[in-house]
Each structure stands twice: as C-alpha cells, then as structure tokens.
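## Example record

The block below lists the input lines for one assembly entry, exactly as stored, with component labels intact.
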Amino acid sequence: GQNIDQPTEMTATEGAIVQINCTYQTSGFNGLFWYQQHAGEAPTFLSYNVLDGLEEKGRFSSFLSRSKGYSYLLLKELQMKDSASYLCAVTDSNYQLIWGAGTKLIIKP
Amino acid sequence: TAGITQAPTSQILAAGRSMTLRCTQDMRHNAMYWYRQDLGLGLRLIHYSNTAGTTGKGEVPDGYSVSRANTDDFPLTLASAVPSQTSVYFCASSEADRSSTDTQYFGPGTRLTVL
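Predicted structure tokens for the full assembly:
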C-alpha cells in the first residue's frame, strides 16, 4: 500500500530552527509537496520538490532524497505564526496526490 | 481574486437527510477535487474532475456524488447522510490535468456534523 509518515507533533522555541521529516512509500514518484495548515483553515502551498536536493524559500527550505524516500521541511527563525500543521504529500505514478496525516508544530515563546 | 469559495461554512445535518456542498472557483482551473479531513488522518480524496464534463472516484467515494457541468462549479452531494460522514470537507482546484507539478489550491472548507 501507499504510505506517508510524519511525526504527529513537534514543539520548538521561538527564534529556533526545526526540521520536520517525511518518509514515503508510494507506487511511483512524481513530486513531493509541503503545505501549511493553520487550525481551522485551509492548507496552503509551501514548496515542491521533484529532484534531489534542497530548495530554499526565505525562512523555509525543503529537501528531497528520492533514493531514500525521504524529505524534510526546515523552518528557520521560528515565529509564533509558524504554529500550524505541516502536511507532506506525494504525487504517485498515477499523478494522484497521497497525503500524510500532518505534523502539528507548536511554537513556545 | 476570490480563488475558491465553499458553502456553507458549517452545517449540522440529521442522519438520512441529503445535502449538497457547494464549491466555486474563479481561477479557470481545469481540475477540481473534493477531500475530507478527519483528525489523525491525512486528506482523503473523495471525487475529482480533470475537466468540465468529467468526474472520477477517489479513495473514499462511497456515499458521495459529484457533477461538473461547467469549469467553475463542483458540487458534492450526500444522498443520505450517515454519522461517519461527519468531517471537514475541502474543495481544491489546480491548473493542469493532475500533472506532477500541479499545485492544488484549497477552499476554506465546510465543517459538517451528521447526527
């Protein structure tokens, strides 16, 4: 079956750095997405990786290793507004988007 | 631009009743999707439409139906609601035909409670 694993919850301190991991086992791979979802709101697009390596976008970076079925989202200089759930999703060989359950990130002052 | 709108925002429905969740996008996206999101589970695809006039079944289609009469609208109908359909429902759209780089954009969601 297809599976995406993320930690359920993480806690970090304001101003610090946090890394949210995602491992996947899917039938084929055509790209990996990270979305941010604040409580009670819709998911919003953060990043997309299809090739191995690091993609940097301001305070957020996303890394992909296709051979290991692994990605991480790195958040730097954490702010209170970064408290949210972070969803990892993989496009499989049928171009269907498979979603992880999400990681709830709690930022403490 | 409005993006994607959904109605209603929330609803309490008696079991056995029918209901249609509305979704409208103004981005002229070809593809549209309906997901449900339950605590502890990832987003699960109910139905999708690659283009106006076509629809397809997702991971959890039972008890739901959709139609895509035009590009902008993609209503989701529950013919006879059951308590297990209590969930938050998200409509999404994307520009292309589910290609690998196809980013999905989400509506604000409808919180449905079936009693």
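Chain A touches chain B at residues 4, 8, 30-31, 33, 41-45, 48, 50, 87, 89, 91, 95-102 (CB under 8 Å). The mean pLDDT of chain A is 95.
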